[in-house]
Write a structure and sequence with these properties.
Blueprint lengths: L6 H27 L20 H11 L9 H11 L2 H6 L1 H15 L15 H13 L6 H4 L1 H30 L3 H14 L8 H13 L7 H6 L1 H10 L7 E2 L9 H4 L23 H5 L5 E2 L16 H19 L20 H7 L5 H5 L5 E3 L12 E3 L12 H5 L10 H4 L6 E4 L5 H4 L6 H5 L7 E9 L5 E9 L9 H5 L8 E4 L14 H10 L1
Length: 533
């Protein structure tokens, strides 16, 4: 039989690769544009990618019992999937592009050897989806951990971004060291324009998860997309009803198995009748490499069964119950009774229960912060709040005339604020440690915290104090005193404190405006004082 590949699907495959690369480039450009632009407000909706993710719409809407209007754009993705199948995973998803790129590299280096028959179950991603959705019924939002956009953006913001920053810094230093002044200046200018944050707490842990996800492609091509992605599972359910169905011409097929061997998601084009429509991402690889052009995708509407996936009623029920059981386990934390003093949320953050039900841990707010003040939490917010944003004053402070973090949140977990609104929001309170403050403890003059306080009139005031030094001399100096009613908790005082190891003035979350409970004096004591008077 004459062997001749389909030129149509060959060029469709090339078009798909170009489209995939283009959308990844768009994602990366928006990622780089998520920084202080020199103006108070961003001109680009840098978080727009997230608004087309139907899993975020579904999970955050159920968990928060509210719909964030911008996420309704994801209904376009659902409609397109119903018509054209799960093409988003193969043509548009930036994380899918990353996995396919590394799968290609691993195949070329023979670290990945595609098997003739892959009998592994494709059920795990569906079970993960059921666990996530079941947990949202009890307001536990786990979607951010494995949602592809959240996972990729968080990995880039917290892990890749500091690496790029370090690489540019070292390259600039090397250029200057070699006497290449012009090149060094160009690199330094590039680094300044990109405004990449240099450090993040928990960066190593998040980076390890990202590298592990990439290295899993040495085991199976697009391992994440096959077995772990809950967004892909959701789209697969919708794609059962699409219009394009795979067809193999029996007169042309030579039973070579190439289509199934090179299928990126184990959709199994061959043998005839075994094709798994929900798993197909319409990458066109099978039709492009078929040596006899036996494969095509004609229009034919017919709902397909979930082949290769064991989703019997008992398994789905058990998985859903697991999600329901996880919710109270995640919520059992003493921090629900009394918040951690280190749990300082960005200005505009909703009340903690609602914030946790909406936050998808994407890292947009962390990437855009111009002072590197926002970091992924680990223990500060309990199990439910791992990798949600917290302000760490020792690393950065909340810039007084900046509301960028409120402009980029894709799910409304951080309410959008104008600069004029933001400067009035109290996110915590500063406290002076008199055992470490130089004027109080050592009798030495220091007014650094008062000088940097941006509030007008200043929340940090100066009072005269007398301190007996070890030499027996009575030293009189001006010392800081915090007006807790005026302090907004921005953290610049702690960040600029000259005492290095443990600053002599520190910010706590107590007094935050978003909470009626996390206040300096518990309401019960205030009521008792009123009764006494």
């Amino acid at each position: 039989m004459k062997r001749e590949r389909s030129k149509k699907y060959f060029w469709l495959q090339r078009l798909r690769i170009l489209t995939q690369a283009g959308f990844f480039l768009l994602f990366f450009v928006l990622f780089l544009q998520t920084h202080y632009p020199g103006e108070d407000y961003l001109k680009i909706t840098v978080e727009r990618f997230f608004h087309f993710d139907p899993l975020l719409l579904l999970a955050t809407s159920i968990a928060s019992r509210a719909i964030f209007a911008a996420l309704l754009l994801s209904l376009i993705t659902v409609a397109a999937t119903l018509l054209f199948g799960r093409f988003v995973c193969g043509w548009l998803c930036p994380l899918g592009a990353v996995h396919q790129f590394f799968s290609f590299i691993f195949k070329k280096t023979r670290l990945l050897k595609p098997a003739r028959d892959d009998e592994a179950s494709l059920a795990p991603k569906y079970l993960i989806l059921f666990v996530v959705l079941a947990a949202t019924l009890l307001s536990l939002n786990l979607v951010g951990y494995l949602d592809p956009l959240s996972f990729l953006y968080r990995s880039f913001a917290v892990f890749i971004s500091p690496l790029l920053n370090l690489g540019l810094a070292q390259s600039g230093n090397l250029a200057y060291g070699l006497g290449l002044k012009s090149l060094g200046q160009a690199i330094s200018q590039t680094a300044g324009n990109l405004a990449l944050n240099g450090i993040f707490q928990n960066a190593l842990l998040i980076g390890v998860f990202f590298l592990l996800a990439v290295l899993l492609n040495t085991r199976k091509e697009r391992f994440w997309c096959r077995y772990l992605c809950p967004a892909g599972a959701l789209l697969a359910i919708f794609s059962r009803f699409n219009l394009f169905k795979l067809k193999i011409d029996p007169d042309k097929c030579i039973n070579c198995h190439l289509c199934s061997i090179h299928c990126q998601t184990n959709a199994r084009p061959y043998p005839v009748g075994e094709w798994r429509s929900p798993e197909c991402i319409y990458c066109e690889t099978c039709a492009a490499i078929c040596p006899t052009a036996a494969i095509s995708f004609p229009l034919r509407w017919q709902a397909e069964k979930m082949k290769g996936v064991n989703l019997d009623r008992r398994r789905v029920l058990l998985t859903s119950i697991t999600g329901l059981v996880l919710a109270p386990i995640f919520k059992i934390s003493p921090l629900r009774r009394r918040p951690s003093p280190a749990l300082i949320r960005p200005p505009g953050a909703l009340a903690e229960p609602e914030f946790l039900s909406r936050c998808v841990k994407c890292g947009e707010c962390m990437k855009v912060c111009p002072t590197n003040a926002l970091h992924p939490a680990l223990t500060e917010a309990g199990p439910e709040g791992v990798w949600t944003p917290v302000l760490v004053p020792r690393i950065g402070y909340c810039e007084y005339y900046c509301s960028l973090c409120t402009q980029v949140c894709p799910t409304g977990a951080i309410r959008e604020l104008t600069v004029e609104e933001k400067v009035t929001v109290k996110i915590g309170t500063a406290w002076v440690d008199k055992n470490r403050c130089l004027p109080y403890a050592l009798g030495k003059p220091c007014i650094v915290c008062e000088e940097h306080c941006p509030v007008s009139p200043k929340a940090i005031q100066l009072i005269k104090v007398d301190t007996l030094t070890p030499e027996g001399v009575l030293a009189t100096n001006l010392a800081p005193f915090v007006n807790v009613d005026a302090c907004i908790g921005c953290g610049i005082c702690e960040n600029k404190c000259v005492v290095q190891d443990l600053p002599a003035i520190r910010v706590s979350s107590v007094g935050e405006q978003r909470s009626s409970h996390n206040q300096l004096v518990l309401p019960v004591f205030e009521e008792q004082d009123e009764l006494k008077t």
